[in-house]
Fold this protein.
Amino acid sequence: MKLNQIPRPRGSKRSTKRLGRGGGSGHGGTSTRGHKGQWSRSGGGVRPGFEGGQMPLIRRLPKFGFTAHPKQTYQVVNLKLLERFPAGATVDEKALAEAGLVRPGLPVKVLAQGELKVALTVKVRAFSKKAAEKIATAGGQAITG
């Protein structure tokens, strides 16, 4: 026996109500909707939460809570790691990623740990105040962007 040869169990198939197809069907006229009113009309009914004009529950209850905005996270690079770049080089997030110091695509912040002895132009998203001072003292530039 194959799947298409299995007979349907007796009484499992029931034909649908054919509404509004004349009085002889038993469902003509008002098509089981009763007389008048918004429920009898096409598109009738009320929206979810409607309580007949009474102040709905969702508006009677107080609001609470808030949405916490996520803190900006940075990849951190210390000044001592920037020593590997040659003097006068421009160090940006792409150069740091190529050197294997950060992952590409995430913002970078330079911190002041260590000393910088070469003049570099460092262009990243953020600097600590001391890091920017140390870069300027070494003869370089700290550019945010």
